[in-house]
Amino acid sequence: MAWTREQMAQRAAQELQDGFYVNLGIGIPTLVSNYIPEGMEIQLQSENGMLGMGPFPYEGEEDADLINAGKQTVTELPTTSYFSNADSFAMIRGGHINLSILGAMQVAQNGDLANWMIPGKMVKGMGGAMDLVAGVKKVIIVMEHTAKGEPKLLKTCNLPLTGKGVVDMVITDMAVFKFEKDGETNMKLIQLADGVTLDDVKEATEAEFDVAL
Amino acid sequence: MAWTREQMAQRAAQELQDGFYVNLGIGIPTLVSNYIPEGMEIQLQSENGMLGMGPFPYEGEEDADLINAGKQTVTELPTTSYFSNADSFAMIRGGHINLSILGAMQVAQNGDLANWMIPGKMVKGMGGAMDLVAGVKKVIIVMEHTAKGEPKLLKTCNLPLTGKGVVDMVITDMAVFKFEKDGETNMKLIQLADGVTLDDVKEATEAEFDVAL
Amino acid sequence: MSDRKIYADATAALDGILTNGMTLMSGGFGLCGIPETLIEAVKVAGVKGLTVISNNAGVDGIGLGVLLESKQISTMVSSYVGENKMFAEQYLNGDLEVVFTPQGTLSEQIRAGGAGIPAFYTKTGVGTLVAEGKEVKNFDGEDYVMERGLTADVALVHAYMADKEGNLVFRKTARNFNPMMATAGRITVAEVEHLVEPGEIDPDHIVVPGVYVQRIVHVPNPVKHIEQRTTRTRNQVA
Amino acid sequence: MSDRKIYADATAALDGILTNGMTLMSGGFGLCGIPETLIEAVKVAGVKGLTVISNNAGVDGIGLGVLLESKQISTMVSSYVGENKMFAEQYLNGDLEVVFTPQGTLSEQIRAGGAGIPAFYTKTGVGTLVAEGKEVKNFDGEDYVMERGLTADVALVHAYMADKEGNLVFRKTARNFNPMMATAGRITVAEVEHLVEPGEIDPDHIVVPGVYVQRIVHVPNPVKHIEQRTTRTRNQVA
């Protein structure tokens, strides 16, 4: 028993606040937009150069000039603005985006994040991930707790980093952890997924963490 | 006998080339726009945030939202574009403006320029002058040859500098000088104003110069 | 769309965000595109010891001249301040500190501040007073001086039109310093001549996206001032 | 207004400015807003050993994929190159060098290059491979890495509309890297969907002023490609 992808997205959506500007990565993070609470005003940023991103278009209404950072066709909203990629990352780097929700390969107990390359494998590039984790006010990682049975929450990342000490929260299928960026406080387990026990989490986690359930 | 202000502006206008983007300072430099040769396409830049500046408006058609860098009311042309001050100086600093024509208090024989402050007097500020002389491809100074009988073309500027080794040409009421920015070649006298002799110029100039008439 | 960003008047729009000794940015170039109504409200609020980053300092009785008159400004960061008797007086008797900054360096510092860039290099001012005490670095054989990004506690800007999301557009040269300052204020307050619903401004035309604007006050038909009224007569050749 | 900047076709627009070993910038994000016709003309010109600065590398047979196929590119500077088999092949066998750059750093480097800024500091990539061998400096207690500005011999951009002066506007997210690249090319060539007379574009809406554009080619009704066609059905809740 653990959370489904949808439940993980739903949990991440609880971190949204009214008026937030949010950047969602591809994969599970994209699903978060399905769980924005009724009446809450959230503007989604797409780092290619758009703020106020709408849902996918109806069939036949796709516009090749209107895509998101995942190169998917999207739509415009009344609040939408377009800008250059440099202006987009000025917004990101300058701390104007409240929240970024991303996937990850590994997270270390000090908040280090690895999600862009595996040495020896074909490298596709980091895209905007390094800028997002360095610039956005709050970074939430949504990922499976383990990969092929191996823990992804580690004492130290052994893959090349995307950012050092950048993670604020990790939501997995098994649990939710909080990180303080003070470099001293341990990461904290703050929630267990439905039907998951503390022992389950301990067994599937290499990182050291405090329990604050 | 020497050149009038209008003749100095006219001489400066000979340095224009078809297709040039030009920034004109206040005073005599502004007059240069009256002498753009027929059929030559010149776009004037105003550093507050405008390219393609038109002439002063007709009486009654002044627009408080449409001024030049001297805070004077101006007009729009079909080629006009507006942009922010940061974008304006990106254009200037990035070397995209072909020519800047400015006034000066002092010019030294190595191309140093002083035109923004006199110690002990009320300082108004350098405005955009330091950016213009550092960034524009070619800098022409148009000024009186002397001030109260004292030479303004000096061995070394004794006023605080606007830029080091930035001047390409000086046009005064008495003569025209060219500067090489190699730090080795002397400034060169290349033209005498109507009715002015070489001896007149030598007497009124402290800077050392070669004669290349 | 809610009205969360809309305030009834300039005083309401500044309520709770002004403190003594704070740093303010104020848009405009000369008297063109200045947030005049917001400046008046700063006067009413009476906060003192302000550091004001603004290309100019208004003229006597208009714009920042008002805050000089009321002695609320202790430091100005500007490129040119020529048009103000009050300014000269306070500057010369030492009541007012002035940091003169080249105009292009100033606007780039503000852009950098808003963009999370703590410092950049520029040719401007190398070998002059402006570079004194600053790091100089050689790139490809040429010297450049390091300049820091600038931010402000509150940025006051003037825009031609806003929608309720805070998307801004500007009119002609009234754009000037307003867009960068909007990005560099921890709180940005915009006074706007026209206020419309989201969707009424073409999203390709928006200059400042709403994310940068926290508070909006609608000031229809503001009085606009001309510093140098220059004209030609109809029979004059351009 | 003369037609001095207007060229009859893409080959004419690139005539005399392409050389082996040169650095090209190419606008676009994925296949959105790429200067596809100009890229095809680079293929026809046959210049080799190109360094290409572009966020992505096209896909097989489209955009820069075409120049990979013809082995004209020796180095790519990109943030993400995932969608291209040809790319993977040449990269893995060492025929192609790749400089991976974080997307925001890349676009800021290009903006800096066009703006005469030789270097700037950013938080992005501190403590990662990206910062290796680069200067790291502490500002106000936080580390930043120094990144250099980028320019190109020639920049190829795609715009929605140009006037004959070279003023450009873009459509929706096809703007992406095109505006900065237009500023960073020593020669900038724009392919445009619509070409109009000066004055037909509102000067408040212009994104790239004409000073940055040296050559224009009118490409009406270009084929536009969609990489990830994602849709919803009418009865689906958004």
Automatic annotation (TrEMBL), chains A, B:
Q: Name one Pfam family in it.
A: CoA_trans
Report the leader peptide range: none
Q: Gene3D superfamilies given for it?
A: Glutaconate Coenzyme A-transferase
Q: Which InterPro entries match?
A: 3-oxoacid_CoA-transf_B, CoA_trans_fam_I, NagB/RpiA_transferase-like
Q: Which UniProt keywords apply?
A: Transferase
Q: Which GO terms describe its molecular function?
A: CoA-transferase activity
Quote the PANTHER family the UniProt record gives: KETOACID-COENZYME A TRANSFERASE (PTHR13707), SUCCINYL-COA:3-KETOACID COENZYME A TRANSFERASE SUBUNIT B-RELATED (PTHR13707:SF57)
Name the family the entry cites: Belongs to the 3-oxoacid CoA-transferase subunit B family.
Protein name (Swiss-Prot/TrEMBL): 3-oxoacid CoA-transferase subunit B
TrEMBL record, chains C, D:
Please tell me whether the keyword Transferase is annotated for this protein: yes
Keywords for this entry? Transferase
Q: Report which superkingdom the organism of origin falls in.
A: Bacteria
Q: Name one GO molecular function term.
A: CoA-transferase activity
Instruction: Output the NCBIfam families linked to this UniProt entry.
Output: pcaI_scoA_fam
Q: Which PANTHER family match?
A: ACETATE COA-TRANSFERASE SUBUNIT ALPHA, KETOACID-COENZYME A TRANSFERASE
**What is the protein's name according to its record?**
3-oxoacid CoA-transferase subunit A
Biological source species: Sneathiella litorea
